[in-house]
Write a structure and sequence with these properties.
The protein is α+β, with helices and mostly antiparallel strands. It is built from twelve helices and eleven strands. The protein has a six-stranded antiparallel beta sheet, sandwiched between helices. It has a three-stranded antiparallel beta sheet with strand order 7-9-10, covered by helices on one side. Strand 2 and strand 3 (55-59) form a beta hairpin. Helix 5 packs across helix 9 and helix 10 (263-289) crosses helix 12. The radius of gyration is 19 Å and the shape is globular. Residues 4-14 have low confidence and may be disordered.
């Protein structure tokens, strides 16, 4: 993925913002929060933060710093900014995300309090930073077991149908065999639904860069795709995004469980990894069709699709599907 990366720390695609972009960020902050110290200081530094679909800036420093997110062109076609604003505030209340200072669903401008001394994570950072995988698992568990309720129901198979409908209005070809793999995935939908536990507030887009690590705890940002969902989706999706090896994946799930995961829990994560790639293949094709210049989204989509097929063709995949119906401990959420 991602899909947006509203980061607040050091990391991908950061640096001094071009003058025009810096002024746009300053103007958005001044219009939304004219009395904020960062808005009142004409020489407050503006730093460009990471983002593939949105433009994200840090304005100001120290405790007066804020993160200003300007929405990417065309994102209104598949992002509900009102839902995002509600869920971002709810995640902050749950203690896993920075405070929301301003959210305007009409314009898509979002302003949050900046975090100090955090590292924006990446697959490499998750490999290098001791305990980061476990801290991410604990942060997701805090969200999932917070008792909060998100607006929107994130349902990946319904979103696949919606994205296919959206792509029918674009000039782009699906990867060869995509519809056949969707048909093969229908039994997964039935098996997941038949064995589903309680829904929980989920991030649903856990790109590594949406995790900010202090070395003691992990914060989570970017709530564009968030909703009520099966919490095992977040575990599987982060494992995919981070390119986690088997040990990292086990540690992530064990940290979330607070104990060694059962075969049924491991199976749920594995199956969601396939569904995750099936869904985000289409997201990549939408970016390609819309001319998003951030990266080669056709290659991105094809890579995800091939990984999905490889996982579903693996000889152990059917074993994991069969284990979905086995009892699972109640983990909360």
């Amino acid at each position: 993925m991602t899909r947006s990366e509203d980061a607040g720390g050091e990391g991908r695609e950061t640096g001094d913002a071009p003058a025009e972009s810096a002024e746009e960020a300053r103007a958005a902050l001044a219009a939304a929060l004219p009395e904020h110290p960062a808005a009142r200081s004409s020489d407050a530094p503006v730093e460009r933060l990471g983002g593939l679909t949105n433009r994200v800036f840090r304005v100001g420093t120290g405790t007066e710093g804020v993160v200003v997110r300007l929405p990417g062109a065309g994102t209104e076609a598949y992002i509900d900014r009102e839902v995002e604003a509600i869920n971002a505030r709810t995640a902050a209340r749950a203690g896993v995300s920075p405070e929301v200072l301003h959210a305007d669903p009409a314009s898509g401008i979002l302003i949050t309090r900046a975090l100090e001394a955090v590292m924006t994570m990446s697959p490499a950072e998750f490999r290098a930073r001791a305990g980061a995988v476990e801290r991410a698992g604990h942060a997701l568990a805090t969200l999932h077991r917070s008792g909060e309720t998100f607006a929107f129901r994130f349902e990946p198979f319904a979103m696949i149908e919606e994205y296919l409908a959206l792509l029918s209005t674009r000039t782009v070809e699906l990867p060869a065999g995509y519809h056949e793999v969707v048909r093969r995935a229908e039994p997964l939908r039935d098996a997941l639904e038949a064995s589903a536990g309680p829904l929980a507030p989920c991030h649903c887009d856990p790109l590594c860069e949406n995790f900010l690590d202090t070395g003691e705890r992990v914060w989570i940002v970017d709530w564009e795709y968030s909703g009520m969902n099966d919490p095992y989706w977040d575990i599987g999706d982060l494992a995919i995004e981070g390119g986690f090896d088997a040990d990292q994946e086990r540690r992530l799930l064990a940290a979330w469980c607070g104990a060694e995961p059962t075969p049924s829990e491991t199976a749920r994560v594995v199956v969601y990894k396939a569904v995750c790639d099936l869904l985000w293949t289409l997201w990549g094709l939408i970016q390609h069709a819309d001319g998003n210049p951030a990266e080669d989204f056709m290659a991105y989509a094809l890579g995800r699709f091939e990984r999905c097929k490889a996982l579903m063709d693996d000889t152990d995949f059917d074993v994991h599907v069969a284990r979905l119906g086995e009892p699972r401990p109640a983990r909360g959420g």
